[in-house]
Amino acid sequence: MNWLGYGACAMAGCLWGTGFFFGKLALREMSVGHMVLYRFLFASLGMLPIVWTAKSRRGPLAAKRRAWTGREVGTLLLSAALGIPIQFLLQFEGLARTTVSHASLMVGTMPVLLALGATIFAGERLDWLGWLALAGSTAGAALIVLGGHEAGAAGVAPSLAGDMLVVLSLVIALGWILMNKSLMLVHGPLAVTAYGILAGTLMLVAWVVATEGPPPIAKVSMTAWLALVASGVLCTATTTLLWNWGIHHVPASRAGVFLNIEPALGSLLGVELLGDKLGPFAWVGGGLILAAAVTLTARGHDFNPEVLLD
Q1: Does 53 score more than 80 pLDDT?
Q2: Distance between start and end Cα atoms, the chain
Q3: What is the DSSP letter of 306?
Q4: Is residue 40 within 8 Å of residue 240, measured between CB atoms?
């Protein structure tokens, strides 16, 4: 069963790595708000079968099912607001201002941010190698931001504002992860994920429709529709299910290495398919970020990557 668990985690990492690519395709025809809304509408459709199995007391949610307290519901709603409308609107607003390659490499800082957050908020200790990895990741992000701003074939050049919005979204995601951790211990990762995505999507609907109006339908090309479906069903719902299933069959510290597929594959797709151009400093910076992430996730830590749901 171990090889199936590793395979599920690897597949989740690969699918996560395509998220910015599909998002960029959809952003050619609609605003950030409408693109993110469609992504989570399709993701919610993928989560509905999980919720239905919970209601019938069968399936992955039934094992740990118990009544939610008022405080837990409040925590879930707050984490859903942080993790879906706020995080993703900021993240894809950043993507609209930078390239897929730059945004993907910035996501590589997430395992390092997790380690830092565990040190600050969970009382875990970061040894000298951990601090060195954190410094290397920070230096790598700086090199990416400062390492050239030449537009690629798609006509979009990386920008400081875009890169920093992606990093800010990751900091917000860290808060979302830490809030969800206690809920997942009580209700299980799939239950918290499913209800969180559904609640966050309702918040997205209210915010986006109020600020931008209903999302476009008739003027959206088939390419954009396919990208939106892939973003929601494959890059959100399917990845969550694969990751949570895989993490229950393999050690979390080893599975965490597969998180690093996302920035590597995302940057490769940007270069190969969208014509992004990475300068020499950006390549070095990306290497530093990935090396730091692999160092932290491969050594084994108490923080649990199973709560990462990008």
Answers
A1: no
A2: 25
A3: G
A4: no
Give residue-wise pLDDT tens across range 68-124: 889 999 999 999 999 899 999 999 999 888 888 778 777 777 766 766 666 676 565
Cβ-based burial of 173 (10 A; exposed 0-12, middle 13-18, buried ≥19): buried
pLDDT of residue 26: 93
**CA dihedral for 283, 298, 230, 73, sign (positive or negative):** negative
| Structure confidence at residue 202 (pLDDT) | 95
Integer CA distances (angstroms), 146 to 140, 141, 268, in order: 10, 9, 19
Contact criterion met (CB below 8 Å) for 194 and 76: no
Helix axes 160-187, 189-212, angle to 10 degrees: 140
* Cβ atoms of 270 and 276 closer than 8 Å: yes
Residue with tokens 């808060």: 175
Pairwise CA distance, residues 266 & 48, whole Å: 28
Q: Give start and end residues of each alpha helix (H) in 87-188.
A: 87-96, 100-107, 110-121, 128-146, 160-187
